[in-house]
Amino acid sequence: MSSIRFLAAPGALLLLSACASLPADWGRGALDAQLRDRGLSSATVPRERFTAQALREPLDLERAIQLALLNNPELQARYASLGFAAAEVYEAGRLSNPLLSFTQLSAGGEAHAQLTLGVAVNFTELLFARTHRRIADAQFAAQKAAVGSAALELAAQVEAAYRRCAAAAQLLQLRERLAQTAQVSAALAQRYYEAGNLKPAELALEQAGGAQAALQADTAQLELSLARASLQRLMGLADTQTPWQLAEPLAALPAADEALDRLQAQAQASRLDLQAAQAQLQAVQARYGIATPQSLIGELQLGAERERDYDGSLHAGPTAAISLPLFDTGKGRRARAQAELQEAQAALQAAELDVQTQLHSAYAQLRSSRKRAERYRDELIPARERAFEALQREHNYMLIGSFELLAARQQSFDAYAGYIEALRDYQLARADLARAVGRRLPQTDPAPAAALPEAAPQDPHAHHHGDHTP
Asked: Please, are residues 67 and 51 in contact by the beta-carbon 8 Å criterion?
């Protein structure tokens, strides 16, 4: 009876351990809630159906992000890693299996063999079970935060790739129109040269300009192809799937940008990688706290034995076994725990510094690209257009030649190209800023940034009654 009472407490703990279960859905539901709070929602329909539906129509940014969240293999691997962390939580809530021992000793002339039956549990695990569970819970929280941070990082990458695609498509249109204008200029130069009104050097310069513009158009085509390939890879789409087209042009500048102090406050509350570092530090601190007592106690086994002696008499009682710290005093484990603590503290400090640095860097890029885009939009492009219109009037009165007019149109194209590149850089800076803040930013107006200028007519002098030598 005494042995039964002795094992009552360990037995109760064993029963509680047996009730431990795996975290529901490996923590994905809780992670999805964290992401929704940060402006990132996952599709609620099956992956195959959503992918097929999304590719039937021109692709907007939100659907592109949803496709990436569902199909990107690297992110799916990160989600699968939640299973490892969930398994650690499950195992931390359970004890090692009890040890059952059986001994049979026979002696000559005895009627019965001596039989001993024993059971023992690792009592050291019982002592530190709650701490091990807290460690596993903290590591699970760190893993969930790390996976959530990867999802937000992927969303920022998709947004940047989408903006690059939109900008590359508009730049290609612009470069093709510029190449058309340069070809008109080169063809006109050839006519003037054949009429004896243009020097060979001037003809060569016009032809070189046409070839240069064609090369720029070829480069723009390549950049669009590369941008599309990058976006398609992020979305996890194969080449054999339905071709897709962008639904949104490169967006215009929003009326204003968010205040830096507000973004800083959001970053402190939203950065999941920062929360992962904090949770990891909590786990390491708990592990460090039990390193010394665990090394001093070692492995302590408690149990009970029941013995039937040679004469048939029965004996029962408690047992205990403890490891003696003679050879392994646990010094290495304590040193390892201390090193892990210092490493986790340094990692958290680095994460905090990264938040500050990334936020200030992204915000500086945002402000600089906005300033450049506004200067293009409000100053350079209007000035180029006014110059072209004035030169066009002079050309109509045959006060200047066609080459001056075509050169002015090419300068207008260059101004528009610079504006598109500045807008692209602004949108990329916004994606970097969202990454630095740790949440999605409000989306800008998807309306086109500006109407692209038309290419020059095939013969800018056709409406004149006679040629005017430039």
From this structure: yes
- Our CA dihedral for 460, 464, 469, 470, rounded to 10 degrees, sits at -40
Domains and CATH numbers, the chain: 2-437 (1.20.1600.10)
Mean pLDDT: which of 121-125, 242-246, 254-258, 271-275 is highest? 271-275
b or e along 297-330 (b: 16 or more beta carbons within 10 Å of the residue's beta carbon)? beebbbbbbebbeeeeeeeeeeeeeeeeeeeeeb
Q: Are 161 and 68 in contact (CB under 8 A)?
A: no
Position 451 scores a pLDDT of 61
Q: Are 217 and 168 in contact (CB under 8 A)?
A: no
State the alpha helices, DSSP H only, in 19-72: 28-37, 47-54, 61-71
Query: Percentages helix, strand, coil for the chain, rounded to the nearest 5?
Result: 65, 10, 25
Pairwise CA distance, residues 130 & 395, whole Å: 88
> What does DSSP assign to residue 251?
B
- Residues 440, 441, 444, 449, CA torsion sign: negative
In the 8-state DSSP scheme, what is residue 26? Answer: G
Phi-psi region of 167 (alpha: psi -120 to 50; beta: other; left: phi over 0): alpha
Determine contact, residues 306/3, Cβ cutoff 8 Å: yes
Whether the CB-CB separation of 171 and 312 falls below 8 Å is answered with no
How many CA atoms are closer than 13 Å to the CA of 67, on its beta-carbon side? 26
What is the C-alpha to C-alpha distance for residues 231 and 161, in angstroms, rounded to an integer? 5
pLDDT digits (tens, 9 = 90+) for 280-309: 999 999 988 988 888 888 888 888 999 888
378 secondary structure, DSSP code: I
Distance CA 91, CA 100 (A): 21
Helix (H) or strand (E) holding 18: helix 8-18
The identity of residue 251, as a single letter, is: A
Cα gap 41→441, rounded to integer Å: 13
Q: How far apart are the first and last CA of the chain?
A: 118
Is 161 exposed, middle or buried (CB count within 10 Å of its CB: 0-12, 13-18, 19+)? buried
Q: Which tokens belong to 369?
A: 């690209």
Residue type, 97: N
What pLDDT is stored for residue 312 in this prediction? 76
CA–CA dist 404, 400 (Å, integer): 7
Q: Tokens 């008499």 label which residue? A: 313
